[in-house]
Amino acid sequence: MTPSKDKSKMPVRSRLTSRRSQKSRKNGFSSEKNQLSALQEEKLKEFRESFVEEFQDAPLYAAVMSYLFYFYMAFFACIKDLMIRLGVRKSKRPKEYKNEGFVPLYPEFEDFYFRHIYIPYSWAFNKPISSTAGPIIQLMEREVVDGGWQHRLTGVKTRMINTGSYNYLGFAENVGPCVEAAEEAVKKHGLACCSSRHEFGSLALHNELETLVARFVGKPAAMVFGMGFSTNSTNIPTLVGKKDLIISDALNHSSLVTGARLSGATIRVFKHNDMKSLESVLRESVVKGNPRRHRPWGKILIIVEGVYSMEGSVLRLPEVVALKKKYKALLYLDEAHSIGAVGPNGRGVTDYFGVDPADVDIMMGTFTKSFGAAGGYIAATQVNINTLIEYSWEIIDHIRGSSHSAAYASSMSPPVAVQVISSMKIIMGEDGTDEGKRRLKALDENNREDILKTRFLSAIIYFRYFRRRVKEMGYVVFGHNASPIIPLVIFAPGNTA
């Protein structure tokens, strides 16, 4: 009788080959093994029936007026262009001389839109402020010069309510324990490390923050970065490559799209938050495999967001997790807008839906919203996952050694790291007070009387109450009721000014 081989001592590639040879289906998929139990199916059915998101169509009169407004602007813009070409009217745009033979900076239509539609209304956007970027801000008024090509400050400052920021819990403030802790960090560590994490840019503060983040999101390990956008764009390429497949939501953030493209992996897109579309793409990908190599995909990575910043929609996480398990894919969850603001404990959509964080392979988030700081993190399971990396490295260790952000970018500023540590401990209740619970509760209030009882009236925009009231006033609002993002649709461009 031949002795059985000890698989733990086999080389990783041999184990992978051995494992694959035992599977009759591509990607190791087995319909019998991955069937959901009757109880799980029942729970998912209840979830689908109770999950409601609003995406109203524009009323007919609003759609007609919007088209007429754009037609009006385009018509008169064409007349202006004609008059400029005939020499009847002088162009006020800056002009570069001696640029014959240069390629135009913008395509023709974009240039037309920029000159005649954006510039005349640009005074209504990008207004500078002279105060803390909190819930109440002071706008610096400007007057239009040269038809919008230049703006001149008038010296007038207007006090206004800020509904255009992601300061969900009010931590973007200039007083309080977080500010005091950040000031002490500047005195002790200075403003910046001026080095990458691979060189002299790793402080004890960064290690403390990474341990805290991992504990907060329910993962064994995490790594922090100085910029939220690059947390996605430079780290996704470390996880997948040319032999792999990325399945991406159609409305994913630009940073996720950039990271997916830089990875070199094949990208397939499914309809926004549509589980039938996701399953269709998954099934086809598993059955057909890589059409170029005529082999199974090395890895299949599903990339989604917890809360979508432009639509206000919330990910159908329980269904995504069920599909991920069924088709043996990996899940990358971007919680930039949900971490800190969604769920009874502020721990994101996993907290909101009661999903085990272990069911999400890679969790990403940023500190620029709920924590009033900057940067981002990636948290993952610290085990040898051979389906993710073909050599025996843990995910976070692999990112730590391979990420361009870790190797080339300057590490997170010490006062910023301390701001995140302080605000996160407040949310977790580890500061010795109930401040975090108060802020989370206040954020979720749904009626005016309860809001007036709280002492955070000047610190937080109460999204549930705000959503309900604007809907009662007849405005079209997109998204899910649990989303802190409330897209208020204004159809006519003139109304924004």
From TrEMBL:
Keywords: Acyltransferase, Endoplasmic reticulum, Lipid metabolism, Membrane, Pyridoxal phosphate, Sphingolipid metabolism, Transferase, Transmembrane, Transmembrane helix. It comes from Acropora cervicornis. Pathway: Sphingolipid metabolism; Lipid metabolism; sphingolipid metabolism. It is found in: Endoplasmic reticulum; Membrane. This is serine C-palmitoyltransferase. The chain crosses the membrane at residues 60-83, 473-492. One of its GO terms (molecular function) is pyridoxal phosphate binding. The keyword Membrane applies. Residues 10-26 have a biased composition (Basic residues). Residues 159-429 form the Aminotransferase class I/classII large domain. One of its GO terms (cellular component) is membrane. Its cofactor is pyridoxal 5'-phosphate.
